[in-house]
Specification:
single chain, mainly alpha, 74% helix, 328 residues
Length: 328
């Protein structure tokens, strides 16, 4: 296992290097120069340096005065020290802005992930046990709705019904108008209330695939020979389901769940943007719209790291939870 982990880590580093190179090359080949725009803006400030001086300084800082590969190596040398430069949109270091917003995304992702698991896994198992029943059809319909609905459409419907028509929740934001006047528990409740609609959006959109995956695996296990043998021996149906079938169904599910854990930090870009939750997704969207190349570069590299980490965790967990799997 240790050799497998070391080998996969080295592969991840190699893949990440080429992904970062491609992202950097694409940024360098954009048809417009955001550096020129930033230099023009800063040169117009009172007492500032000239446009030419700002342009030369920014080009030197971001390695734009040399070729793509040399510029990439210069950027990489700073990136490995977690120095991604200053954000043009927010006028602070990229890592400082990241530390300020990441925990909003983590809180939203963790709460949504928790509800996704406690809803989708039991629903998928019940649907498999009661195959072709009304419960099975209901779970299938809900799963198809979750898979088919676009995030922006479902979020808009929720806002129309619960914010505009009923007035139960605010349209957007993290806190209400009188947040500062509330007690500590009142402020916590205010933030939790603003998380309700974004959480519902993520959960409903996400549970469909997990429901179908759980149901499919449970049906496969229930049709296995050892399940038929247990029933033939007179084992109680509840024990067959809960002890034999459920435990083996969890093996592939654990790998999916483990691989999804790094995604808790990635942020839900569309949901955060629609509800204006100041997490990493919404912050990155604003940076991309505003032409903030340093922050956009960091966010795409961050997403690549999370993807590679999730794949590695899923592979390791599969070998851990299933003793039949041997990694070599």
């Amino acid at each position: 296992m240790s050799k497998f982990i070391v080998k996969r880590l080295l592969q991840c580093v190699l893949i990440l290097f080429f992904v970062a190179l491609i992202i950097y090359a694409v940024m360098r080949c954009l048809p417009t120069s955001y550096v020129e725009s930033i230099a023009r803006q800063r040169s117009s400030l009172p007492g500032s340096k000239s446009y030419t001086e700002w342009l030369a300084q920014l080009n030197a800082v971001y390695g734009l005065d040399v070729g793509i590969f040399r510029g990439f190596l210069k950027w990489l040398a700073s990136a490995v020290r977690l120095d991604f430069g200053d954000s043009w949109q927010y006028n602070v270091p990229v890592m400082e802005k990241f530390k300020d917003v990441i925990w909003y995304s983590f809180a939203l992702g963790a709460v949504s992930f928790f509800f996704e698991l406690i809803i989708s896994i039991p629903a998928g198992i019940i649907a498999a046990v009661k195959q072709y029943s009304k419960i099975d059809y209901a779970v299938t319909v809900i799963a198809l709705i979750g898979v088919s609905l676009p995030t922006f459409f479902f979020a808009t419907i929720l806002k129309l019904v619960f914010s505009i028509k009923l007035g139960w929740f605010d349209l957007y934001g993290m806190v209400g108008r009188y947040h500062e006047q509330l007690s500590a528990w009142g402020q916590f409740g205010d933030i939790a209330k603003h998380f309700v609609l974004p959480t519902c959006t993520i959960v409903i959109i996400s549970i469909g695939s997990m429901m179908r995956y759980t149901r499919t695996n449970m049906l496969e296990v229930l049709n296995s020979d050892y399940i038929r043998t247990a029933r033939a021996k007179g084992v109680a149906e509840n024990k067959v389901i809960s002890y034999h079938a459920f435990r083996n169904t969890l093996i592939p599910i654990v790998t999916i769940v483990g691989g999804s854990i790094p995604g808790l930090f990635s942020g839900a870009l569309i949901t955060e943007t629609l509800f204006q939750i100041p997490g990493i997704g919404y912050t990155s969207y604003q940076a991309m719209v505003g032409g903030d190349i340093p922050f956009s570069m960091f966010y795409m590299i961050f997403m690549a790291v999370l993807t590679l980490l999730g794949t590695l965790i899923a592979d390791i967990l599969y070998a851990v939870v299933d003793p039949r799997v041997r990694v070599n």
